[in-house]
């Protein structure tokens, strides 16, 4: 049995125990198993949508045949309200990239399907929000290399640019960012990501390297921001 098959069996066993619980309306899968890649230390991330007023704990962990199941809870009303509010919020990726294990309320499945559709307004709102973080780190990198002549510390801020830049690349293509945004952005914009992911992670950059990376970022933003 492969590791993924072991995880799927643990998911099945746990699901069968909670499926008929009257307080549980739906069970949602996210995390590594939902994304398709697991290893022996991967846990199973589940969200239980429960009836309002049930008052369950915020979450707990369960050992299911040697595999950790991390279970969190959300009231059905809160879940639906969050789905309506999370236009353009990267938190939506928790559900958008996951799957419905089971549901007793098909409207919940409709909510999940809806957040998989990233609209123009969503992309613009988050592009601008993520830009703020990206620009802050870009400016700090410039400060440390220009005013303080410390390229090593400037390199630290370039590394911090990496995730925000990857998220922006995905949003421009109406894809929902997630914890694998960086490798996905490497597929889409390899030359750009090499400056902010590969080089800062694998080399000691000089002042000239830092300035070149900042110029690459400025050129990208000038071309794409409009």
What descriptive keywords fit this protein?
single chain; about 230 residues; alpha+beta; Beta Polymerase, domain 2; Four Helix Bundle (Hemerythrin (Met), subunit A); 10 helices; about 60% helix
Please explain how this structure is put together.
The protein is an alpha+beta fold and 226 residues long. Helices cover 58% and strands 15% of the residues. It has 2 domains: 113 residues, Beta Polymerase, domain 2; 105 residues, Four Helix Bundle (Hemerythrin (Met), subunit A) (Up-down Bundle), CATH 1.20.120. The protein contains 10 helices and 5 strands. A hairpin with a 2-residue loop joins strand 3 and strand 4. It starts with a helix and ends with a helix.
Multimer state: single chain
- What's the CATH superfamily of the largest domain, by name? Beta Polymerase, domain 2
- Given as residue ranges, the uncertain stretches (5+ residues, pLDDT < 50) are none
The number of strands is 5
- Mind telling me which CATH architecture of the largest domain this is? 2-Layer Sandwich
Number of domains: 2
Strand content: 15-25%
| Helical content band | 55-70%
Rg over C-alpha atoms, rounded to the nearest angstrom: 21 Å
CATH class of the largest domain: Alpha Beta
Mean pLDDT: 86
Quote the CATH topology of the largest domain.
Beta Polymerase, domain 2
């Amino acid at each position: 049995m492969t590791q993924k098959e072991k995880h799927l069996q643990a998911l099945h066993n746990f699901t069968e125990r909670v499926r008929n619980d009257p307080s549980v309306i739906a069970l949602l899968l996210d995390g590594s198993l939902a994304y398709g890649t697991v290893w022996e230390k991967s846990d199973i991330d589940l969200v239980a949508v429960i009836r309002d007023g049930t008052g369950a704990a915020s979450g707990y962990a369960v050992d299911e045949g040697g595999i950790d199941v991390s279970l969190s809870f959300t009231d059905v009303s809160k879940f639906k309200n969050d789905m309506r509010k999370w236009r353009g919020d990267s938190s939506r990726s928790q559900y958008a990239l996951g799957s419905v294990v089971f549901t007793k309320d098909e409207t919940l499945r409709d909510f999940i399907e809806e957040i998989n559709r990233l609209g123009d307004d969503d992309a613009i709102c988050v592009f601008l929000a993520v830009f703020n973080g990206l620009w802050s780190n870009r400016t700090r990198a410039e400060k440390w290399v220009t005013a303080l002549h410390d390229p090593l510390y400037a390199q630290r801020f370039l590394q911090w640019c990496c995730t925000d830049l990857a998220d922006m690349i995905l949003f421009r293509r109406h894809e929902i960012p997630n914890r694998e945004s960086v490798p996905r952005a490497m597929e889409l914009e390899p030359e750009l990501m090499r400056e902010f992911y590969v080089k800062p992670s694998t080399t000691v950059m000089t002042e000239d390297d830092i300035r070149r990376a900042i110029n690459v970022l400025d050129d990208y933003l000038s071309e794409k921001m409009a």
